[in-house]
Amino acid sequence: MSPTRHAAFASAALGAAALISAAPASAGFSGEYTIVVFSGPTHEKTASYCLTFTNTGNIQDFPDSGTWQAQGDPYWGGNFVVDGNVLRWYGTTSNATEVMNFYNTIKDDVPGRGGFDDWFVSAPPITAIDDGTQRLRPGCRSHLPRHFGDPTR
Amino acid sequence: MNLFASAALGALALISAAPALAGFSGEYTMVFYSGPTHEKTGTECVTFTNTGNILGFPDSGTWTSSTLSGWGGNFVVDGKTLRWYGTLQEATAATNAYNKIKNDVPGMGGFDEWNVSNSPITAVNDGTQRLRPGCRSHQPKHFGSPAHSPLGRR
Q1: Which domain holds residue B94?
Q2: Which of A63, A111, A130, B137 has the fewest CB atoms within 10 Å distance of its CB?
Q3: Which CATH number goes with the domain that contains B73?
Q4: What is the pLDDT of residues A94-113, one digit of tens each?
């Protein structure tokens, strides 16, 4: 554990009551993450983007759920749900002509690797744009990530 | 040397006899478990057709439903995961799903169904699902090698 994390943990332990009372209504998954995209069957690294997840807790009764948005692109965003140990998220871009869907397996309250598909919206047959794997890395450049799940973890 | 030549000839014969597409295909019943409590809410019959031509994925293709008209899309087998996605209701709604593959059989996974629009979008249904080989009296086709087919495991 880094000194910063250790200090944060100690502070949280000392001020547990205050933290509980100050906790937001939705304390699940949220914050800034960098998605790193690995495309095609060979999983070549092809791109990375900064995303912000906002917990609203109101997606189809999933208590840990909300919306996500790409930084710098107000038209790229959608919903997410934390369903057991899986984060699923999906949405549109390009004026809703293009769909992206993702999932990440959660381990130790951190979203790890997963898959994604990017495709044009039409009646079947549809046209694929990109398929592959991806991972979510906490934070974007100099930004510090927000918590995933219990802040003490 | 003779052994090598024989092996080479045998290999050529095997290549010529091999099916062009030996990946995931066939009829499956998708069983839905909706919401955070995963209540069983429905089943649909889905037919996967292997085309091997989705963005360089050798094990990939299209799928359609015989029980829900106009519902279909693409699938890719990416390592140990089957991902499939598409549209319904004249492309006003989208479905995305994935299933973990174990012993060449697609097991449990997740799904989301939602109305397509600019962000913010509207969720319709989210939860887990599983693919059960076959639809009623229909026999399933194979997943992966015929030696590992779900039919063979019954």
Answers
A1: 22-136
A2: B137
A3: 2.40.128
A4: 999 999 999 999 999 999 99
